[in-house]
Amino acid sequence: MSIPIHEYDAVVVGAGLAGLAAARELKHAGKSVVVLTKLHPLRSHSGAAQGGINASFAKDDSTELHEFDTVKGSDYLADQDAVEFMCETAPELVRWMEKMGAVFSRNEDGTIAQRPFGGQSHPRACFAKDRTGLTLLQTMFEQTNRLGVDFLDEWYVADIIYEEGIVKGVVAYDIKTSEPAIFNAKAVMFATGGYGRAFKINSNAHANTGDALSIVARHGLPLEDMEFVQFHPTGLAGTGILMSEAARGEGGKLINSEGERFMSKYAPSKMELGPRDLVSRSITQEVLEGRGVGPDKDAVYLDLTHLGEEKIMERLPELRDLAITFLGLDMVKEPIMIAATAHYSMGGVPVNIAGNVKKNATEHVKGFYAAGECACVSVHGANRLGANSVLEAPLFGRHVGRTMAKEIDNLELHKVDVSCADRMVAEIKMLLENSGSETIPGLRSELQASMTENAGVFRTEESLLKQKRLITEYRARYKNIRIDDKSNVYNTDLQEAIEFGHIIDYAAFIVEGALLRKESRGAHFRNDYDSRDDENFLKHTFAYMNEEGEIKTEYTDVTLGKFVPEARTY
Ligand SMILES: Cc1cc2nc3c(=O)[nH]c(=O)nc-3n(C[C@H](O)[C@H](O)[C@H](O)COP(=O)(O)OP(=O)(O)OC[C@H]3O[C@@H](n4cnc5c(N)ncnc54)[C@H](O)[C@@H]3O)c2cc1C
After folding, report:
1. What pLDDT score does 2 carry?
2. Angle at CA of residue 205, ends 200 and 209, nearest 5°
3. What's the whole-model pTM score?
4. For the chain, N or C: smaller number of CB within 10 Å?
């Protein structure tokens, strides 16, 4: 088969806020760059972000307070040098986006409006109604188009070309035609976003299948802190579709079946605006103790009726629409029903602040970079604060784009040949020709349900060991799958089969990390080890997978700084 080889200075995989910001910087610096994305850029999950982007503009706010809230929110697992860089750069980044055309909601006096979010000591989230991500994504897309960045959308990246410790490009295929191609580049960046689709109840787009994570892991490279999965407190009952934290920021109250505003028991000073991990556990606890609402008693009420129609339409119009469409409940007239939903992944491909992907705790891979939700730099540690990720993605994306533009001048284009595509071509052939008895939708829903049950908000040694066994079983059954669509045109069955292979791999990392971390920290809560253990676990997990899918872990130091770990109360 003749496979075209395209040459570029830089390949960026992913067209969310992180990828677009990097591509803009690379093009601006005069480098040739292509953005490969399996979705149209404007369908990237960044566009679903509702609530806001943090920056410490206000007179009585400060960078230091933003840093403190972030580090405390992270349960002291965040690397404080990275947090400092992010919080110091945030106000300038927001201004930068604004100058490029992003229209933020305003106060009467014309300043950018800011709303309170969980775990913050000051209202700090800048927003564009409840469509913040979409506003920023459209702005970045316009700017990259203006500069003439090449886009190949609906292209699926299936592998990196990693030889002699150097990343030399990527292997991809065109989803429209299934035609493969090789992209040979001096520098490759992964900006492939989050991966909440390992769970049944989740807030993530269907495309958030963590492809990059397992592509990296299958080459023996490490993944960091994968056990830390954030469960957002307010997903719509039954589906997990997100009701942004903005709902609580604007004054939403959480109420159980007894009419009690139960957060007074769990976070008396912050109430509903406690950090996400704490509020999610409180909701789940209420449900487990029989005070849930709804037909299956598996949700609680989120009451916004006191805000009135005018404010809801001004601040939360999108949320109102979603609740009417998916629950048939109008938040202007009645409380809606919510429960915790898998939302965000703190772990990912380990990188330093400049964005270089780490080969181990001390060395990095030449020519390979990452930013955004797929990366772990680690600014969120064990738990991310709301509105810090729409900040992280373009902030580090832009910074990494600038690093790449500089480093490219000293990087060579290592020529590659068509044999680099062998692995992808063989995988596609195997999936198309297999005629087993398992189907992807069947296997996937089993895996997702079991992850929610055994590796969700509350975890135990027993539940995690059970999940580990199940994953081994799913891995074996995956070899016996069948896809019915054998065509070359928009073969979504094929794509979903490849994606499911990735989900199995990274789910195994989540479970292994959670099993070995015998403590509770941030979003990772073990019923059998219910307190934080700084002596043994104030450490990042670095995990490596071998060819058999077995995972080995080691621990590396957290970069501490001016904030000394202390008890985390709200
Ligand atoms: C519903 C929702 C609401 C949120 N609200 C907020 C909020 O208000 N504030 C906040 O701070 N955070 C919020 N978040 C989190 C935040 O939006 C994300 O973490 C962030 O936008 C991720 O940006 P990204 O650029 O890393 O990835 P994404 O925007 O997810 O982009 C990923 C890109 O990678 C591409 N891609 C992936 N795999 C492949 C592949 N194999 N081949 C080719 N392309 C690939 C996709 O096509 C896509 O373009 C929210 C998340 C969700 C799910």
Report:
1. 87
2. 70
3. 0.97
4. N
Distance CA 267, CA 265 (A): 6
3-state secondary structure of 37: strand
CA angle 203, 208, 212 (to 5 degrees): 145
Residue 570 has a pLDDT of 85
**Distance in Å, CA 539 to ligand 1 centroid:** 26
| Structural contact between residues 300 and 287, judged by C-beta atoms closer than 8 angstroms | yes
Spacing, Cα 47 to ligand 1 middle (Å): 8
Considering the candidates 24, 43, 276, 521, report the single residue annotated as catalytic: 276
Query: Residue 318: left if φ>0, alpha if ψ -120 to 50, beta else—which one?
Result: alpha
Please return the burial class of 211, using the count of CB atoms within 10 Å of its CB with bins 0-12, 13-18 and 19+: buried
As a whole number, the mean pLDDT across the chain is 96
| Each residue's pLDDT tens digit, 127-160 | 999 899 999 999 999 999 999 999 999 999 999 9
pLDDT for 1: 65
Question: In this predicted structure, what is the pLDDT of residue 404?
Answer: 98
**pLDDT category of residue 569 using cuts at 50, 70 and 90:** confident
Ligand 1 atom 9: the closest Cα is on which residue? Answer: 387
Distance CA 297, CA 280 (A): 16
Cα–ligand 1 centroid distance for 188 (angstroms) = 18
Distance CA 570, CA 272 (A): 11
